[in-house]
Write a sequence for this structure.
């Protein structure tokens, strides 16, 4: 899959994606991932933060609301960056860029780097690891939310004839590479890698793994977002809290 095709897919998906984000409807974010992502980031007051694959900028705005001094959001998809810029305040900036090459950023320029469901989109996630390690200050955190490797392998439910979910199919786990999904009616390519591939690459890039979180829902969240009932059964996402020692 060429870079142009990956860009084209995100370009097409950006229209429904931005609409959904603006309507505040995205249960996996608001009901599941936002809270542990913010917890993993810790106290962000006064920090300079880089968001790799920021989309239309929702998490950048959340970090600013929590007191970040400055947030720089990067995304390959121009309409996403235009949408983020529309809601820009004085303390954030956005740029169309491929997060596998951050050569326009100086060494140790950021206190914290986040990647909120972006590494699964990258053909060369290790290039992103190396670049983030370089632009992060010593002692800073790199917080990565990703599809859980057990779900990115195949990711489908086996259902009874009347549609009831029985179990998730886990297969082709060690067959790493492209996977094709339909999201909001748009064909999207992303990349499956095993847990050991991710963790080995983080360590090899020089990061220390401070924590691994597998987010699930509380009963209270489930009452608000009943569609997240799957999350009590199987891990859909994973958050790696990495530190540059
Ligand atoms: C699943 S979305 C997540 C967006 C945002 N972080 C959020 O949580 O709403 C993934 C984003 O990564 C962007 N993306 C994909 N490949 C990229 C690359 N090589 N460099 C920068 N951004 C990329 C897509 O355009 C898309 O906006």
């Amino acid at each position: 899959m060429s870079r142009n095709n990956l860009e084209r897919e995100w370009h097409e998906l950006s229209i429904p994606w931005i609409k959904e984000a603006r309507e505040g409807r995205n249960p996996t974010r608001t009901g599941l991932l936002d809270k542990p992502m913010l917890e993993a980031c810790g106290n962000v007051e006064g920090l300079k933060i880089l968001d790799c694959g920021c989309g239309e900028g929702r998490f950048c705005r959340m970090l600013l609301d929590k007191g970040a001094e400055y947030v720089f959001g990067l995304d390959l998809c121009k309409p996403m960056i235009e949408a983020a810029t529309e809601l820009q305040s004085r303390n954030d900036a956005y740029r169309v860029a491929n997060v596998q090459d951050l050569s326009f950023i100086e060494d140790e320029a950021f206190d914290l780097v986040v990647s909120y469901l972006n590494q699964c989109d990258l053909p060369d996630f290790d290039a992103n690891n190396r670049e983030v390690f370089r632009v992060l200050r010593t002692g800073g955190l790199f917080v990565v939310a990703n599809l859980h490797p057990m779900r990115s392998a195949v990711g489908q439910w086996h259902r009874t004839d009347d549609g009831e979910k029985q179990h998730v199919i886990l297969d082709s786990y060690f067959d790493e590479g492209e996977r094709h999904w339909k999201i909001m009616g748009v064909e999207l390519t992303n990349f499956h890698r095993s847990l050991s591939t991710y963790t080995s690459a983080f360590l090899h890039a020089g990061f220390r793994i401070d924590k691994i979180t597998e987010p699930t829902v509380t009963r209270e969240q489930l009452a608000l977002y009943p569609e997240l009932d799957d999350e009590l059964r199987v891990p859909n996402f994973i958050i790696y809290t990495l530190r540059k020692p």
